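Problem: given the chain below (429 residues), write out its structure.
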Amino acid sequence: MINSNKISLGKLCILGLQHVLAMYAGAVIVPIILGNALSLNQEQITYLVSADLLTCGIATLLQAQGWKNFIGVKLPVIMGCTIIALAPMIAIGKAYGLVAIYGAIIVSGTLTFFLAPLVGKIMKLFPPVVIGSVITTIGLSLVPLGIKNIHEGATNFGLYNSTMLGLFVFCMVIMINKYSKNFIRSIAILLGIIVGTSLAYSLEMVNFLPIKQATWFRAIQPFHFGLPKFTLSGCIVMCLVTMITTIESIGIFAALGKICNQDITKKGIISGIRAEGLAQIIGAILNAPPHNTFAQNVGLVVLSKINTRLVAVSSGIILILLGLIPKFSALALIIPTPVLGAVMLIMFGMVAASGIKMLLDVDLENTNNLIVIACSIGIGVGISSVPTLFNGAPELIQIVFNNGIFVGALFAIILNVVLNLTGKQDSKI
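Solution.
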C-alpha cells in the first residue's frame, strides 16, 4: 500500500473521482426507480437524485473522517444508497406516501444509532441462513421491475427498438465483465448506461428536456416533500432492512481493516454503525433513501493500493458538490427505460446471486436449514408476485403482509429460531 503522505491533492481528487464513478450507477438508480414506482414527475425525481448524491457525500465523510472515536469507522469507506431497501420503500410509499418512507428511515436510523452497542446480541437472530434467504428474496422480488421497464419502453419506442436496445445493454455489461479488468470492470454498469443511452440517442429515444429545465445550483431543502409520517408497519419493515444492511457493513469493515492493515476493534465497529444510523437520519431529513457501506468500492482500494481514508474524504466532497448541481442530477433522467430495465435485471439478479453465494456457506445437509431457506424464499417471492393477496384485510395487515420481503424475512427469523436455536437439532440428510 502507498503512504498517504506521498499523495498530492490532485491525485487525491482523481482517486476520489474514481470511487465516485464506481458507485455512481448503483447510487442513483435507487431514487430513479423509487420515483418512477411512486409516479413522481421528472423534477421531483431530479430532486431525489440530488438529495441522494448530497447525502452519499455527507455519509461518506461521517464514516471516513468521523468524529473523535464516537462516530465513524475511519476507513476508506464509500457510502451509497442501499438497493436492498428499494422494494420495502416502494411498498411503504405506495401505501402511505413518500413522507412515510422518510419517517420509517428516521426511526430505523435512530434505533441503529442508539442500539449500536447491542448489535452483537441482535446478530444472533441473523445468521447466514437468514440473511442469505432474505437477500435472495429481495433480488428475486425486484427482477420483474427490470422486465417492466423494458416493456414500458416498448410502449414508448416500439417493441423492436425497446427489446433490442435492452438486449444490447444487457450483453454489453456481460462482455465488459468478461473481457475487461480492474477499474473498467468495476464501472461496467455505468459504461452500459452511457453507451446504451448514446445508442438510444441515435435512435431518437432520448429526451434532453430534464437537463434543459434543471438549474445549475439548488440547495437541498429539509423535508422538501413534507414532514415525515410515522407508520408502525413501515417502521418495522425498515428496521428489519437496516439490521440486514448493518450486518453486511460489519463484514465490509472487517474486510477493509485487513486490506488496510488496521485492527478493527469492537469499539470501531460500533462507531461505524453509529455513523450509518446518523447518515440515515440526516438522509431522511434531506429527502434521501437510507445509505450503507458500498462493497464494490472495496475492490478499488485493493486495485489502487492506496488505503488512506483521505481518498474517501475527497469522494465525499465530490459527491456533495454534485448533489448541489441539479443539471448533473438530471443526467440520470435521460436514460431510456429499456436501458434502465436492462441494468436493473443485472443488478437485481446480482443481489439474488449474492444471497445464494451467502447460502453456500450454510450447512445445506441440515434439513432445518433447507426448510428455512425454502419456506422463507417461497413465501416471500410468492407474496411479491401476488401483491393483491391480502386486499380486503385491515390496512395494517395489508401493508405488512402484502410485503413479500418482510414476510419472507419474518418467516426466516422465526423458523431459524424454532428449528435451529431451540429444542433438538435436526439430523443431516
